[in-house]
Request: fold
Amino acid sequence: MHDTPTQGLKRSFGLKMAIIIVISTIIGSGVFKKVAPMAGVLGAPYLVIIAFALAGVLTLFGMWSIAELGAMYPHSGGPFSWLEKIYGKTLSFLYGWASFTVIQTAAISSIAFVFAGALATFIPLPQLPGDIAPVSFLGITPFDNIGGKLVACLLIIFLTLVNIRGAKRGGNLSMVFTIIIILCILVISALTFGNKTGSLETFKTPAFHIEELSLWGICGIMVIAMRHAFWAYEGWMALGFVGEELHHPEKNIPKATTIGMLIIILLYLLINAGYLYVLPVQEMLAGISQDENKIAAVLVVDKMFGNGGAYVISAMILVSTLGCTNATILVSARIYYAMAQKGMFFKRIGKSHARHSTPANSLILQCIWACVLVFSGSFDLLTDLVIIAAFVFYGLIVFGVIILRKRKKDLHRPYKTLGYPLVPLIFTLFCLVLLAVTFIESPAKSIIGLMLILSGLPFYYYWKKKNTPASGN
Reply:
C-alpha cells in the first residue's frame, strides 16, 4: 500500500459530473431484472409502475433530506461524518463498518458478478472439473463458477486501478458508460411502444386481482414490491461520499441529486412500462418460472425481434454494470478513508496518493475485500443484507435532519430540505415499515444483517482505546 503523507483530496467534480455520479451509481442490473418479481407480487402492470414511481419518489425524499446534510458538511465519507455529528462516534463507526463489511463492498461484488454473467452470454467462461467445483468450506463453495468469479474480480481490480490514477479518470469513465446506457434505455423504450406486438390491452391485463385483499394486505404487498424496486434505486446516497471533492457542494449536491434522480425515475418508468406494454404479466411470469436466471428484459426483446434478445440485453447489462461498479468503487472508498482520518480504521487507509491525490490505500483494501466476497459465492444473501443493513442507517441519517434542526437551530444551512418536516418524516416512517415487514418475512436474514452491523463494536472499542491518550499523574 502507499505510505505517502496525507495530501487531502482534490475538488475534481462539477455539477455535470455530480449528476453522472448520481445516475451511474444507481443504474445497474435492477432496471432489467426487477419488473418480474414485482409483477409476481402485484399482478397488475399499472401497480408495478406505481410501485416503481412510489419507490422513486421516496428515494427522492431521502435525497432531498441528505442534500441538507451534504451542503452543511461536505466531507469525504458523507454519512459517516453526518452520523457522528448527529448521534456520536459509536453509531458513525458502525455505519462505516457495515459499509465496509457488507453494504458497499457487497454491492460492488454483486454488480461485478452480474457483469460476469452478462459476459458469459458472449464468451464461454472456464469452469473447474466436477470433482473440484463443489468443494465447500463452512458452506462456502469458492471454486463453483470459477470463471464468473475470476471475471468479477478482474473487473474490480481494473476499475480500482483506474480510480487510483485519479478521481477525474474514474468519473470520466462513468460518464461514457452512463451516456451509453441512457441512450440504450431510451431506444429500447421507443422500440417497445413503437412495436406492433405491444398494446394497451396487454398493459391493462392483470395476472391476478388483489382487490379481495384487505387494505393492510394491499399495503403489505406494495411494500414488498417496493423493496424490489429499492434495489434498482440502491446507490442514491453516493454523492454524499465525495462532498470534499465537489466544487460548490452547497449548490451542486441539491441540484445534482434532484436532476439525477428525476432522470432515473423517468427512465425506469419508461422502460418498465415498455416491458409490460409488450409482454403480458402471465407470460412474463411463466417465462421466469421455467428458468429463474431468465431476465424479463430478454423475454420482451425476444418477443419483439425473435431470438437474440439475450445478446441485446446482455450488452446493455455489460455497459450498465460496468459503469455502476466503477462509480460504486469510486465513492465507497471515501468512507474508509474518512474513518482512518479520524483514527477509527487502519491508519494507512487514511493516506492519499502523493501524485494522484486519491484515497489509494482505501481503494486497495476495498478491492481486496470485495474480491473475497466474490469468492464467498453468497450473492443472493449479500444483496438481501445490503438492503436490510442499509435501511437501518438510511432512516437514522434522514431523521437526523430533524434532530439537527431542533438541536442546532442557528447553524448556517446553505440548502434546506424541500417540504420539511414532512419529507424527512415520510421517508423515516417508510424505513421503519420496510424493516418491520422484512423482519416478519425474513427474520433469519434480518438478524444476520443486525449482527454484521454490531460485529464492529469490538473493533470500535479497540481503535477508540488506541486513540485515547493515556492519562498522566
